Each structure stands twice: as structure tokens, then as C-alpha cells.
Amino acid sequence: MLILTCSTQLLRLEGILRKSLPSTLPVYGAVMNINRGNPGDYEVVVDSWPDFGAVLARRRGEVAGGDVGWASWFGHSARGRCQMGSGAPRWHCPLPSRLESGVKVASLSPLHVDLLNKTWPYGGNARSRAYLADLLERFPHLSLQDAAGQPLCWTLTDQFGAGTHGYTLPSHRRRGLMQAALTFSARRAQNRGFPFYG
User: Fold this and answer.
1) Quick check: pTM over 0.70?
2) Are 102 and 191 in contact (CB under 8 A)?
3) Sheet with 141-145, side-by-side order of all strands
């Protein structure tokens, strides 16, 4: 296995993975994050270069199966499978014409991590709380909040560029808030050159 550290190789890998979307999406998202500042401190490992058949994205220095998580993609011949398209998929995401009165688009703060941990299906413990706090600190997220700054719904992005935790408080459901939050998140991701998926 070979760790890719050269920026030219990483950009080339991103282009190769882009051609095999959507099957390469988790690894593609991690490579895009690495090539755009590496906020999650990730590295990419391939079985060989440039003719690779397997790609692994993991936290720098971590072994597969570690606590933080990793993404992989395996192909018979990675270069041979890159036939699906010439670029990242783009979706038409019309922005809502307007939000309800008193609802604003905002960021979450570290003060909201307990709410996130309580509402996440995999949450409720110290490990999930630490993971969610890390996501808030390092990766894009968005929330719709009331006039007092209380989150009504939110979406978080993980280290692989995927939407990982979206939630609307039960008392605010069926008002189109999540659709609006996802639309704003997709538009922001696309403006930064990222695909939006979950």
C-alpha cells in the first residue's frame, strides 16, 4: 500500500474518481476535502500508483477499522472502470422563494452539540458527542433557526463530503424546513465544487 502525499497525484486521483461517480462518491468526497485544505486531517492510500485497483481514505496515521472511520473503493482496474461521466453530477436546486417569517439560515455552535447528540440515531454517548463536535468544528453545516437563535432543523456534512445528520425538531415538521435546509446546503456545496449526497 502506498500513501499519496503529492498534490499532483491527489488532484489526478480526484479526476479519476470523478469519472466513476456515483460508485466512488464516499472516497471522492474525502479526496476533495483533502485537496481543499484537508480539514479532517485525512490521507489516501492506494494499492499501487498510477494503476490502482483500491483506494482507502482514512484519518492520517490511522489503520483501517480505527475509531474515526474510513472510506474505500475497490475496482477490477480503477482506470478501466472510470467510464461513467466527465464530471461531478449537478442537480438543479432552486432556492426557496422565502423562508417563513422569523426563520433564518445560520450556523450551529458548539453549544448545540448536546442537542445534536440527543437527536442523532447513533448518538447519546460520549463518543458520538465527540464525533459530532468534531464535525461542527471542521466541516460545513447549516441550520434554520428561529428569531431567538434556537435550531429548528439542521444538516451536517461528514469527512467524506456526505450529509450525515439532518434533523427537524418534531414540533416544526411538515413545514418544508428540511427541504429548504437541504436546498441551501446543496447550493453551498455546489458553489464550492462539491457534489451533495447523503
Assistant:
1) no
2) no
3) 104-106, 141-145, 151-157, 163-168
Q: Considering only CA atoms, which of 61, 62, 37, 43 is closest in space to residue 4?
A: 43
Q: Which CATH superfamily is domain 104-192 in?
A: Gcn5-related N-acetyltransferase (GNAT) (3.40.630.30)
Domain boundaries in the chain?
2-59, 104-192
* Residue 128, H or E segment: helix 126-138
- Pairing type for strands 104-106 and 2-4 reads unpaired
Could you report the per-residue pLDDT of 29-50, keeping only the tens digit for each? 889 889 988 887 888 888 889 8
Between helices 25-35 and 7-18, what is the axis angle to 10°?
150
Cell of 107: 450556523
Tell me which residue has cell 484519518.
Answer: 59
3-class state of residue 75 by DSSP = coil
Q: Residue written as cell 477499522?
A: 65
- Distance set, CA 3 to CA 67, 131, 133, 147 (Å): 20, 25, 28, 48
Question: Coil, helix or strand for 185?
Answer: helix
Q: How far is it, in rounded angstroms, from Cα 101 to Cα 93? A: 22
Picking from 103, 4, 118, 114, the residue whose alpha carbon sits closest to that of residue 56 is 4
Can you read off the three cell numbers belonging to residue 53? Answer: 485497483
